[in-house]
Amino acid sequence: MTLGGHVLGVAESHGDGSQSTIAGAVVRSDRALDGLAFSTISHGGSDATVRIATLFEDLGREDVQSVVLAGVAPAWFNLVDLTTLAERVDRPVVAVSFEESEGLEPALREQFSGDALADRLAVYEALPERHPVAVNDETLFVRAVGCEESAAADLVRRHTPEGGRPEPLRVARLAARAADAFRTEAAARRS
User: Fold this and answer.
1) How many CB atoms lie within 10 A of CB 124?
2) What CATH number has the domain bearing residue 51?
3) CB neighbours of 52 closer than 8 A, spacing ≥ 6?
4) b/e per residue 55-71 (b: at least 16 CB within 10 A)
5) Is-above-0.90 flag for pTM?
6) What are the pLDDT digits (tens) for 2-48?
7) Contact (Cβ atoms closer than 8 angstroms) between residue 187 and residue 21
8) Counted domains in the chain
9) Is 96 within the bounds of a domain?
């Protein structure tokens, strides 16, 4: 399966301490920006999957063929359930991380306990494995639901013209940061 056409990249800016801004950037196959949407997710919460799905639905873009996420644990371990997200948006979902790691389980056990830990571990353990993907001179780590590993790797490579960050994620991260800066400035003017 080849994943082409429009891609929705979703990335975060860490926000004000209680929530992160997420931006969704629709990027065409020629890497041109073709739409933006914004939402927030709570730090340490469990609303990331629902908020990303709602962001996708609010865009109303049937031409988006896949969703690419910057990682699976935005907003201080607000884990994204990739399978649930893929089912809800009815598109392949690819999560990209940028560093090699031993995994999130030790950090989850350090930061959470009881039901909060159990819920996060259930989501984390259900995630597909990360696979290294060589992109330009970098190695990215990719998880995919709804498509083959090879299709996910091809998608990431085709949308990374240089460096090691796919264009939909680069643009989404810039947009999320700009939205945070705007909100901070607007709040300061109101004070």
Assistant:
1) 17
2) 3.30.2170.10
3) 10, 22, 24, 39, 41, 67, 69, 80, 85
4) bbeebebeebbbbbbbb
5) yes
6) 576 899 999 999 877 789 999 999 999 898 999 999 999 999 999 99
7) no
8) 1
9) yes
Answer for the pair 167, 101: CB distance below 8 angstroms, yes or no.
no
**Residue 188: what residue type?**
A
Domain extent, residue 107, equals: 6-190
| Residue 107 falls inside a structural domain | yes
Task: Region of 114 please: left (phi>0), alpha (psi -120 to 50) or beta.
Answer: left
Give the rounded distance of the alpha carbon of 135 from its chain centre: 18
In a domain, 131, yes or no: yes
Hey, is 25 helix, strand or coil? strand
First to last CA, the chain: 53
Distances (CA, A) of 2 to 28, 44, 62, 149: 15, 35, 17, 11
Residue 183 lies in a domain: yes
CA 73, CA 82: separation in Å to the nearest integer?
Answer: 11
Residues making up the chain, counted from first to last: 191
Q: What angle do CA 121, 122, 127 make, to 5 degrees?
A: 95
| pLDDT per position as a tens digit, 53-68 | 999 999 999 999 999 9
